[in-house]
Amino acid sequence: MAPKLLVTCGHLQRHIARYRDEIVAHGVEVWVPKLDGQQFGAAEMAAMLAEADVAVAGDDDLSAPVLRAGVAGKLRGLVRWGIGTDNVDKPVATEIGLPVYNTPGMFSNEVADLALGHILTLARHLQRMDRDVRAGLWTRYEGRSLHGLTLGIVGLGGIGREIARRGVAFGMKVIGSDVVTVDPKLLAAVGAQQKPFEAVLAEADIIVLACNLTPENHHLINADALARMKHGVMLVNVARGPIVDEAALVDALRSGKVGSAGLDVFEAEPLPADSPLRAFEDNTLFGTHSGSSTAEAIQRVNRMSVDIALAMLGLGHADLANFNKVA
Ligand SMILES: NC(=O)c1ccc[n+]([C@@H]2O[C@H](COP(=O)([O-])OP(=O)(O)OC[C@H]3O[C@@H](n4cnc5c(N)ncnc54)[C@H](O)[C@@H]3O)[C@@H](O)[C@H]2O)c1
């Protein structure tokens, strides 16, 4: 029977026509289940993974029971499209011998561009001006000059350093924190200085979250951390929603402690209709977890994901040793 490649990641689903003939030519069946929304839940994933030989997944539920169900069936390899692997139970994948690969470093530029988009829009009230002009108004808002501000970046990895490079180009002083000591040469190349988390909270006018989500940094930006920021700080999150305690952020927006917030990611996605964040119409900018969503980046990562999936089946031209194994 032909091996089955399951595609649950929406980005590859949308462009599967570009790869289908190539995959089928290797004798592999392509399985693209209908995706409503951003991801599949646990029950659906468990059932589908058990029927697939390899899978390319996105933000889907890849928790321990789901992975175990997959391996109890036919599953022998998993590609996590993109960088974040917080939805994958990596220790369990390792324990049950399920190889999992991701595609890191593929869209640092794109996510950094998006972060700067949030900063520029909020600093100059672009979203309010657009809204007002369309409503027949002509309001001239007083914004902030970026030149001379201090930009603080939490997480100085691939994305964080590209944000730093852009911040310097806009004339900002760039500081950042990380849980590891980042190679000073890498930081010097983008003009950033590593400082303790506390110093970033205290000194930055704009704080961008660009770290990976780990069990240790869940709600890293809580009421306590917010209290230590400058009054009126701008907070931008292009990393993962659960790094911010949204209830504490709502309080901080209400009090003016946080002057504005750009959020590409949320604790629950899509953002619930009754989220209290929606009340802040003038000083928040929301995204749809789309930091990597450019035609160029999606094509790049789709190509790599298909190469990895085929290589896991012992097919295609790519060598698995060239890819990033996370479990
Ligand atoms: N918004 C989007 O659409 C989108 C797209 C791609 C990636 N992301 C997120 O961005 C994250 C970062 O991507 P990357 O390519 O820069 O990853 P990376 O692994 O290169 O860098 C992450 C950095 O964060 C650091 N870090 C971890 N915990 C920290 C903490 N508590 N404080 C400070 N630093 C901490 C790590 O040590 C590492 O240096 C991804 O893990 C993903 O969750 C979001």
TrEMBL record:
Its EC number is 1.1.1.95. Gene3D superfamilies: NAD(P)-binding Rossmann-like Domain. It comes from the Bacteria. It is an enzyme of class 1 (oxidoreductase). Residues 116-290 form the D-isomer specific 2-hydroxyacid dehydrogenase NAD-binding domain. GO terms for molecular function: glyoxylate reductase (NADPH) activity; hydroxypyruvate reductase [NAD(P)H] activity; NAD binding; phosphoglycerate dehydrogenase activity. Keywords: NAD, Oxidoreductase. The keyword Oxidoreductase applies. InterPro entries: D-isomer_2-hydroxyacid_DH, D-isomer_2_OHA_DH_cat_dom, D-isomer_DH_CS, D-isomer_DH_NAD-bd, NAD(P)-bd_dom_sf. One of its GO terms (cellular component) is cytosol. Residues 21-308 form the D-isomer specific 2-hydroxyacid dehydrogenase catalytic domain. Belongs to the D-isomer specific 2-hydroxyacid dehydrogenase family. PANTHER family: 2-HYDROXYACID DEHYDROGENASE-RELATED, GLYOXYLATE_HYDROXYPYRUVATE REDUCTASE B. This is D-3-phosphoglycerate dehydrogenase. It comes from Kaistia hirudinis.
